[in-house]
Amino acid sequence: MTKPGYILVKLVEVAVIFFIILTALFFLFRLSPGDPMSKMVDPMLTPEDMAHLIEQMGLDRPLWEQYLIYVKNFLTGSFGFSFHYGEPVSHIIVDKLKWTILLFTTSTVLAAFAGIFLGKIAAWHKGSHLDNVMSISALVCYTLFIPWFALLLLWILGFKLGLFPLGGVLSPQLWVGNASLLVRILDVLHHLMLPLMTLFIINLGSYLLLMRSSMLSVLREDYIITARAKGLSEKVIRNKHAAQNAALPVITSVGLSLAFSINGGALTEQIFTWPGIGKELIFAVSNNDYPLAQACFLLIALVVLVANLIVDLLYAWLDPRITY
Amino acid sequence: MLNKYSLQRFYKGWQIFIENPLGKTGVIILVVFMFMAIASFFVPLIGPMYDPMTGIDPDIRVSTGPSLTHWLGTDNVGRDLFAQLLEGAKVAFIVGLSAAFISIVIGTLVGMVAGYTGGLLDAFLMRTADIIMVLPSLVILLILASLFGQFNIWIIVFIIAIMRWPAVSRVIRSQTLSLKHRPFIEASRVAGASHLRIIFRHIMPNVLPLAFLYMTFRVTAAILVEAALSFLGFGDPSQVSWGMMLQWVWKSGHMFQAPYWLIPPGMCISLLTLAFYLLGRAMDEVLDPRLRKEGQA
Amino acid sequence: MTLLSVKNLSIGYKTKKGLLKAVDNISFDLEKGLPLGFVGESGCGKTTIGMALMGLLPENAVILEGSIQFQGEDLVRLTEKQWRKVRGAKIAMIFQAAMNALNPVHRVDEQIKEAIITHQPDMSDADLSDRLNALFDLVDIPVARMKDYPHEYSGGMKQRVIIAMALACDPDLIIADEPTTALDVIVQDQILKEIRKVQQKIRTGLIFISHDIAVVASVCDRICVMYAGQIVETGTKKEVFTSPRHPYTLSLLGSYLSLDNLDDIVIPDMQEPPDLLSDIGSCRFADNCRVCSETCKKEEPGWVQISATHKAFCCEPQIIRGSHGKN
Ligand SMILES: Nc1ncnc2c1ncn2[C@@H]1O[C@H](COP(=O)(O)OP(=O)(O)OP(=O)(O)O)[C@@H](O)[C@H]1O
Ligand code: SF4
Ligand SMILES: [Mg+2]
Predict the structure, then answer these.
(1) What is the dihedral angle through the alpha carbons of C40, C208, C80, C24, rounded to the nearest 10 degrees?
(2) What is this model's ipTM?
(3) CB distance A223–C104 less than 8 Å?
(4) Fewer beta carbons under 10 A from the terminal one: N or C of chain B?
């Protein structure tokens, strides 16, 4: 298979999986107690608006037609109206998505790089004090209960020491007024620190442990002896021959642990009132805002699938042994 | 299945396991939590005041710190935090072990069937597993909770188990594939053994150790998901759990005022997770001779 | 002129059960530009010697005594930094291709280039590519395949690349540890030819290790036979094949006899070699030896010189009549 062919196959795969999830969600909504109307149409609306919405979603049609309309609506980006905001759901979630992506990608990428780097060092000095300290700390980070850890950080760094804001993305005084872009960006970064730190530390633990064990098994490989036999310096052996190979499985595991990270991301957003998709989902679920919940869920599923796709492609690109 | 040989093997495995510092630490932490779980049965007997859910100290109306009558203090309605913590240990074990057990049963069955039959059924089962594997279980539980209302603890356990079998089934499947063409399996096939018999008599005993290894990791996942769900306020409202305690301290606004309330439950969740993780790692080393050798050299 | 001179070399491995003496008091010399073969059963210490000559013994290994003189230096005393100047440049190693000796994520030419650049950092790009072309030519790999990844090569090609890699810096000594094991017979033959051809062409010293005495004989004129950490017999190919003196050599040849003279010799039921963890103090082959005498069990055997090039480590060196050799 050629490279474009491989990418195409992967894309189709993602599309099919997403379609299955979409379908499953539709039937879950119909299976759940209560009629679908009450789930998709805000009971507080005026009768005309209600009629209009019912028409738009085909809620008075037979099930299969409803399904087709549901798929069509999804493809055109109309998810209905949020009960709580009284706005089209699509407007709300697009705004939230950027915050989730900011938090999620920065924490994952930073943690992956740091974890790979530190894991490499730990494995290289296996059995030393340095290794013991790093492995044990990583183990502790990895097993920390995320919400609890987030609350501790909030309590100590935010509340007691006052180093960081207690929540949100932007200080209220900057909402209005004409603060410069730079000031706003710095303020957002200031708000980002605590949630970022939470996710970073927890992901760092798992990537460090993975890289360490992957590196240890690579160091037992014969080609490491070959590299030594060539008279290469220890640094070249460590970085070029061991770490490059060892990092590959870690990248795969980034893909596999995405689901875990998303869970953690939602909890972190909730605690630091970071206005992302995860927090929005929890809000929607708590307030029975079904259209919003549905859209958030689908968006999260999409984020997971796309991130997985990226990891797959990255892996295929990095590992010459993958034949398309 | 439990003949002398496998007993001996088990004993040898246990020896390596308990010599391993990881395994030892894990076992010690676990034992402590087990005592806590057992103690939780006796605490309410001391007096109705110590019931973790309904016991209220009549003299206390606000959250108070540790004292002689309440070792860890009380929450804002006067319930004893230590009693709640013990109850939480019990719930964590129940949730973790039963969810893990169900998921390894499903995972082992699916993995054996997929690996043994191959073909379309295999492809179908494994694609399903792939899809489930990428879904974040907490998010799924949240959306289900929004549709079906609050779940009781057993439904939560069951949903977690349903979300968590795919990784097990993948491992069991590849193990089954490698067993499938071993002479003893081929021989019993030639001898006319039925498929069911081959799967249960010959394949299952060989994949079970792996399944149990995976069970320890599943326990961790289940405890974490249940705690997170409770923390967010979608847990079983009739059940005290560590996640629930954190939800209470957070929602009642005591998180910055009552460290004696905030710290213990989270610490317990983290330590129990750590214990099961250590156990899993140690078992890994017992089952994987390559790792063991590395440790000895 | 002597290129390499090993004297009284003993190497042990620290294990949980104690010190395992894998190489015990071994001495041999190697002339410049000549091949020398080591043969012996699995576990007799061949790889340990090879790795000691590369300074690549595992962490738990200790050189207990002895010296390795190479170009006026005692390799035993080299620091890690000094070793890096020797490895790959003056002494190189041919590994077994069935092992994962090539890094799967780097291109083949890159892996060879790296060996050259490390030792000749000033080489110009043009010279470097000439050198690579020459190396690939030498081992008969089409230059067009140079930029492939290892997994795109067949087992035989990988083995050739590994040979090319060892030759990259024109070393004075090459150590080949079971270079053809796990290749199929035809490829094995080609590779042996390759090694012979290359060795004769560039006249490097070669230490060739194998458990198969016929393979060793096809490359080397001089052979050391090893048993349980010791050299038990050494001589020219002809001497070892036509008049083996050590009973172990005899049984090695016996296990290699062709079918037509199988009747002549009873292939003995061999017992495991003795436990290398303990001090043995008598002949290690005694339990398997058909001519073992009382003296053998009491004292360590000594060297018996048979000719200028031929000697055996045995109390009762056999005069075997009716030769079993093929050449
Ligand atoms: N790292 C090590 N730690 C402990 N013992 C070792 C180690 N490496 C080798 N040994 C032991 O040292 C002895 C010699 O091993 P060596 O690898 O040199 O044998 P060999 O002749 O190369 O065998 P083979 O033909 O199997 O490669 C064996 O008994 C082996 O078990
Ligand atoms: S020394 Fe004695 S026992 Fe050893 S090989 Fe020679 S004859 Fe046999
Ligand atoms: Mg060897």
Answers:
(1) 30
(2) 0.88
(3) yes
(4) N
**CATH number of the domain at B20-55+84-290, please?**
1.10.3720.10
> By the 8 A CB rule, do B107 and B166 touch?
yes
Residue pair C174/C94 in contact (Cβ under 8 Å)? The answer is yes
Would you kindly state where each structural domain of chain B is located, as residue ranges? 20-55+84-290
Q: Is C85 on the interface with A (CB under 8 A)?
A: yes
Write out the E strands in C71-195: 73-74, 91-94, 173-177
The DSSP annotation for C49-94 comes to: HHHHHHT---TTEEEEEEEEEETTEEGGG--HHHHHHHBTTTEEEE
In the structure, what pLDDT confidence band is assigned to residue B4 with cuts at 50, 70 and 90? low
Q: Tell me whether residues A226 and C106 touch, CB distance under 8 A.
A: no
A311 near A252, Cβ under 8 Å? yes
Q: For A231-245, what is each residue's pLDDT tens digit?
A: 999 999 999 999 999
pLDDT of residue A323: 63
State whether residue B253 is helix, strand or coil. Answer: coil
Q: What is the pTM of this model?
A: 0.86
Q: Is the CB of C247 under 6 A from ligand 2?
A: yes
Q: How many CB atoms lie within 10 A of CB C178?
A: 20
- Number of Cβ atoms within 10 Å of the Cβ of A247: 24
Interface check for A32 against chain B (CB to CB < 8 A): the answer is yes
Q: How many domains does chain C have?
A: 1
B139/A33 touch (CB, cutoff 8 Å), yes or no: no
Domain span holding position C300: 244-327
> What b/e readout covers C117-138, taking b as 16+ CB neighbours within 10 angstroms?
ebbbeeeeeeebeebbeebbeb
Residues of A in contact with B136 (CB under 8 A): 258-260, 262-263, 266, 300, 304
Residue B79 has pLDDT above 70, yes or no: yes
